[in-house]
């Protein structure tokens, strides 16, 4: 669910500690910085108990909660954390927000115990985005918190504000990253918020740690000229989750206090009523278990690292949502993840043996195979079934299974009628997205086969072509 890591160097530990709070499901990081007595937090997630637990454990006083920008990919815990701890809530000036906060602008210095954080205006990911340079009282630089600006070998995407602002923000992003490189020592550790699988990253980012000097060798904003950077970034922007549209408005209004309590337990008869009414009933179990037996009309979203972005992408915002889990603990884990993107309205849960939850009704099921199995089927019965690719457009552009049809996962629900009845083999890059698609497509008349396999094995099976059919 989360990891905390001490990311300071040996020479700095006597003075400051920078601890990473990982939110792998969103590809984001928050940071807790302290001098042994006083702490600041940068870009906290909504489930603030992960932060308050560390503060209590270490006997730290939280002085400031600092946001690099108004977030587009998650609901911030900053406002609630600041209020709960009596800390100062810091955001860049310029954004229209519906609550009181401490506005900062370029060049300002925030003091917290022996910590000094210098504000640098680094627009690009948003118009008012800032980075925070961690310094000591003598002005020595110990790190920089770059939010969605300088990432590891990448930069934050620039198309989340308004489509008409994308080119302007892309050029601003280029100059912001170059400013960071020009003004900070090469040895400066870089602590980005995005870039660990987040759709807020314009391109995939790696590795797990870096410095300003290392970025000078790998970051596209520092290795390309401006026009090449702009053209390449904009051309490479892919679709992003639909729930992003709701994140900035929630964060500007000020999120409600987080509620991690379990939803109401519903009995099998009520569960069946909700399914028959067409409500969203999400099964959190492993995708193989779902394929082996599931309630008619339920949707399979295995509770794993990529659960949150894809459920958020496909979920009709505000619709009633019931969760099915193997245990109450699994539902609680999903609940925690969902509040991070503002899905607070859980109308019920059920857990335990799926046969019991079926309340006497027959379970549905479908087969699970791999690309070798598909190759066998192609060899034996060519033309007698459909192969469906559910990957993104950019993945499809690199090739696909010969003769396959393509519907990206985020379009499956509205385009499900395009998929023929009969035998349908469904694949993606790993098996996760195809498992979601199979659960959506599952209905009488379709004989589904989930390809639960890495797409790298499609080439091994002789199925990959660089020019797949549309």
What does this structure look like?
The chain is an alpha/beta fold and 470 residues long. The protein folds into 3 domains: 4-253, Ribonuclease Z/Hydroxyacylglutathione hydrolase-like (Metallo-beta-lactamase, Chain A); 268-354, 3-Layer(aba) Sandwich (Oxidized Rhodanese, domain 1), CATH 3.40.250.10; 367-465, 3-Layer(aba) Sandwich (Oxidized Rhodanese, domain 1). It is built from 17 helices and 23 strands. The chain has helices at 49-58, 78-85, 166-183, 212-218, 220-223, 226-236, 244-253, 268-276, 287-292, 307-314, 328-339, 354-357, 371-380, 393-396, 412-415, 432-441, 456-460, and strands spanning 4-6, 17-23, 28-34, 38-42, 61-66, 88-92, 102-104, 109-112, 115-121, 130-135, 141-147, 190-192, 280-283, 299-300, 321-325, 346-351, 367-369, 386-389, 400-401, 405-406, 422-427, 446-451, 464-465. The strands form 5 sheets. A 7-stranded mixed sheet has the order 1-2-3-4-5-6-7, covered by helices on one side. Strands 8-9-10-11-12 form a 5-stranded mixed sheet, with no helix packed on it. A 5-stranded parallel sheet has the order 17-22-21-18-20. A hairpin with an 8-residue loop joins strand 9 and strand 10 (130-135). Helix 3 (166-183) packs across helix 6 (226-236). The chain starts with a strand and ends in a 5-residue tail after the last strand. 46% of the residues are buried. Residues 1-14 have low confidence and may be disordered.
Short description:
This protein is an alpha/beta fold and 470 residues long. The protein is built from 17 helices and 23 strands.
The CATH topology of the largest domain comes to: Metallo-beta-lactamase, Chain A
Shape: globular
Radius of gyration: 24 Å
Query: Helical segment tally?
Result: 17
pLDDT < 50 stretches = 1-14
CATH superfamily of the largest domain: Ribonuclease Z/Hydroxyacylglutathione hydrolase-like
Work out the strand percent.
Answer: 15-25%
Provide the domain count.
3
| SSE class | alpha/beta
The percent of residues in helical segments reads 25-40%
